[in-house]
Each structure stands twice: as structure tokens, then as C-alpha cells.
User: Fold this.
Amino acid sequence: MNEQPEMNDFFTEMVLKLGAAGIEQPRLEARLLLAHVKKCEVAKIFSTINLTDEEKQNATELLKRRLAHEPLDKIVGHREFFKADFIVNRDVLSPRPDTETLIESVLKYYTDLGASLQILDLGTGSGCIIESLLLEYQTAHGVAVDVSAAALAVARKNAKKLGILPRLDFVQADWFATDFAENISKCGAQKFDVIVTNPPYIPSGDIDDLAPEVRDFDPRSALDGGADGFDSYQRIAEIAPELLVSGGRIFIEAGVGQAERIAAIFASKGLKLVEMRADLAGIARCVVMRKK
Ligand code: GLN
Assistant:
């Protein structure tokens, strides 16, 4: 006997519509959306009571947004990354599992979790990279830089939620500005043990071909890497040597097929290649370079 005919009919309709829109995991996404509306765990979504009219209306609104290819995390307003849950919205790039490769790589080279590392994040967005690191390294201190004030507001909210606000400074700055390195050196730590960065790296001409979830909902400034995708890598390679302590390392996220050239760019500025670390799909995702 079906105990919740109404809920199941509504659910089935959501799944069919999501599937027809080309959403890859329609059942999972329908459950996630309904769990958000019901403010309950996803695992409980089948045992929950029927939807009220208001909940149905809410679910219908959220479904409409997902059918227009707004990503689920931006609809529900948060996303898991590494070990924590991060607030996200349209002002920040959605955290990707690929980017967890950077965290794993830092953990490999800095095994003392009690080390008082000074960490700099260039292009922090939601803050997911540096804040995950500050959660691991309990006495580390960080500087999170972004050109977007709106992104920094999200990163700050996340830091507060995660209880690491006292150990993280936020700086709104553009790394293409000539006095960038000088300005960063003035705030707190003058030099950093670790720099992490997931800069924009999509060639401008490729952006139109990205999935609508990315193209239309991630900030363009977080995606667009200039004509060949390497503008920010070039610039960061110029400033990183100045900002690192001797022996310090930079962990750079690479787009598909970009790792070799990134390593060459940073090597031309005097940094030494340590490792190219692959993500779970086997793509060289994190380039690690060391200052002599
Ligand atoms: N990883 C993102 C994508 O492939 C791009 C993020 C970036 O440019 N840093 O859609």
C-alpha cells in the first residue's frame, strides 16, 4: 500500500521533468530539492509527511530554477567541499571535487598539522580552499584575496560559520595591478609558506561552450583566463616568488591539459617543479612549485 500517494506523485513528476531537461541524476536531485524544502535530511525524504500547499509551491519554484540549469548548490545555497559545508551563491565559483586535489597535496607536504603556517589564497571565491586548510592546520593563519567584494563577503560568512574568522584576513585586490605583491606584503604576514590558487583558466573563446550550469551561473571573472586561458597563471608566476618564503610552495589548480605549460611558466620565474598531482579522473590538476 502506498502511504504517501501525494508525495510520490509530486516526486515522480519532478524526476521526469529533471530527466527531460537533461539533468544527469534526476532522482537524486529531486530528493535534494525536496529535502531542502522540507528542511530535513535527504535520507528521510521518503518517510516524511505529505507536502503542504506552501511546500509544493516552494518545490515548484526551485524545480523551475533547476530546469533552467541553475546548479543545485546555488539553489539550496550551500555545498560540501573536502570536510566542510560552504555557503555558495552566484557571486562565487561553485566548489568542485577536483579542487580537493590541492588540499590533499598541501597535506602531503606539510604533515605537521600544528605548524603555524602562513597561507595565501589567490582568488578565494567561497573560501573553500584556504578555509579547508585552516580547519586542518589549527594554528595556521591565512590571507584570502579576491577581486570581487561580493565573493569576499561569502568567504567571510563561511569563515565565521566554520569558526576560523580570527585566523583569516580578507583583501580585495586585483593581481594584475602593478602594486599587488607590495600591498599583500603589507597585510599581516609579509611572506607566505604556502600559496594556493584556483585562478580563472578557461580560454575566453571556450566559455560559450561550457555547460549552462557553469557558463551562466559561475561568475565569468572566476572562469575567464584570457585568450589562451593562461593570463592569470602568467601573472601569478610573476608575483609568487616575491610572496613566498625561501623553500615555500605554491599549489596551482590546472585546467585540463594545462599542467605542463603552467610548470614551464613558473619554472621560467625561478620556481622548481615538485609535483603534478592528478585528480580522481586522472587529470593533472594540481601543479606544485617550490621556491629555492
Ligand atoms: N573548474 C572550472 C570548470 O572547468 C573552471 C574554474 C576555473 O577557471 N578556475 O568549469
User: Anything to note?
Assistant: The first strand starts at residue 78 and ends at 81.
